Amino acid sequence: MKTPLITTENYLKLTQFYQTYAAVVDQANWTAWLDMFVEDCVYKVQARENYDRNLPMAALSLTSKGMLKDRIYGITETIFHDPYHQLHMVSSPLILSESDQGVIESQANYTVFRTKNDGIAEIYNVGRYLDRLRITDDGIQIESRLCIFDNEMILNSLIYPI
Amino acid sequence: MSQENRIPMTPIWNHEDTSRIPFWAYTNEDIHKQELEKFFYKNHWCYVGLEAEIPQPGDFKLTVIGERSVIMVRHEDNSIYVVENVCAHRGMRFCREKHGNTKSFTCPYHQWNYDLEGNLQGVPFRRGVKQDGKVKGGMSKDFKTSDHGLTKLLVAERGGVVFASFDHDVESFESFLGPTMLSYFDRMFNGRKLTLLGYNKQRIPGNWKLMQENIKDPYHPGLLHTWFVTFGLWRADNRSELKMDEHFRHAAMISTRGSGGKDSQTTNVSSFKESMQLNDPSFLDVEVEPWWDGPTAVMMTLFPSVILQQQVNSVSTRHIQPNGHGSFDFVWTHFGYEDDTPEMTERRLRQANLFGPAGFVSADDGEVIEFSQQGFEQKPFHRSLAELGGKDIEETDHMVSETLIRGMYAYWRKVMGV
């Protein structure tokens, strides 16, 4: 793999961005979550099996910020589910490519623990973020985030974004 | 009921009809083992997959019937075989790949090799080894490879969907479905080639029958699935029908989105959300397809193994794979048709956001099944109630009935002998 030109400053920004994202979803701060995406964005949660076989199906396939907002409305207002907390552990990012126009393609592994009201944390979802990010003066925003998960089976349901 | 009557608990159906369902039907491991034998392994056709999953000769897919691992494979002559994934020698589940392409099956343990129909082709050292001019070891003289093939299943294909049965005396697939269910089956699988869009898989900690019941229960969609009602996809006064086969084991919930007025009586919930609009209406960018022939949603439950879904443009099979009495894996295979435009494929994929483990109107089904099982486990001497629409079993022209659940349990009791 050709090593992209990476400035220390951008790598620090990127690292901060990945950890901020984890904190935002762990706190269920959905307004902040939405703000991390550009208007014309893609957010998918897809089984590795589908991704590896080029099958387009995904557990969640949101292709506009409007869809992201509708998802948040769904999880906060309409979907019945057991209450739970999420805790994300996100690895250091790996930069795959960086363009002159300020677009970075990068990835990072994640583990999400789920804790229900019975108080026992369980490994809920593990995978990697595969991202296309835009560096602007206001910080980093997501053009596309694919959450490609290894779990063969989702543990019953997947409500919150990961 | 006194504590003495509860423990030990004997599984007796102590109600005259099926408007009450004892919790032991969901919690008793012996009952579960019997169900596997009587419904999944005998007398029934079980879903294994779509032809589109194995398009080329030699393509195979690993799947399950009940709790038995089986392989669906396409032969060189294009016909489809289903064999059990247990080596005839030492019983190993030899196939470890979920899918692939092969010329034959080999168990890595002792290299026993089978053709794609499951016939044993050869075993190493069958005639022993030659040492000092003598033949030593090897199989008995009367060992015949033809006696030691893989367990072969009967296969039925229709409209691109593949079913199999361990029971070689099972009735024909067409007779198993019966004429009414067959007509709805043929509506969805009308001979056009299917295209595979991919999978959603979830593990639901509840008894497998609860998923059949969920799709035989038109009482809950407008009440549990607030999303349906909020965005106008479901109304209790939609033109609808509930139909069954003559044994009441299979069913279809058929409904057509009406253009009727907004009568708050009809939904009974969430009317305050009437004015909600989607930020991105493309979730519900529905295009009427000619093959629908009217209904906008037909949900079929084929007992015991599969649910066939048409919800507007989203079509899928949902495969029920039990693991013990208190858990099952639920595998959704989404597909399209060969003549779909790219726009139609996008539409099917977008609408799939409503379904599956993360779906706007399906995530909550898995949740309520989990919590129902919790309720059953804590008081297995108790029973649930299914009395909406009375206590009889009959087809209806409305959705306000639990008749399909009563029908399923009438059939279940007959087969289980309880």
From TrEMBL, chain B:
Belongs to the bacterial ring-hydroxylating dioxygenase alpha subunit family. It comes from the Bacteria. This is Rieske (2Fe-2S) domain protein. The lineage of its organism: Bacteria, Pseudomonadati, Pseudomonadota, Gammaproteobacteria, Oceanospirillales. PANTHER family: 3-PHENYLPROPIONATE_CINNAMIC ACID DIOXYGENASE SUBUNIT ALPHA, CHOLINE MONOOXYGENASE, CHLOROPLASTIC. The keyword NAD applies. PROSITE patterns: RIESKE (PS51296), RING_HYDROXYL_ALPHA (PS00570). CDD domains: RHO_alpha_C_ahdA1c-like (cd08880). Residues 45-164 form the Rieske domain. Coiled coil: none annotated. GO terms for molecular function: 2 iron, 2 sulfur cluster binding; dioxygenase activity; iron ion binding. Keywords: 2Fe-2S, Dioxygenase, Iron, Iron-sulfur, Metal-binding, NAD, Oxidoreductase. The keyword Disulfide bond does not apply. InterPro entries: AhdA1c-like_alpha_C (IPR043264), ARHD_Rieske_2Fe_2S (IPR015881), Rieske_2Fe-2S (IPR017941), Rieske_2Fe-2S_sf (IPR036922), Ring_hydroxy_dOase_asu_C_dom (IPR015879), Rng_hydr_dOase-A (IPR001663).
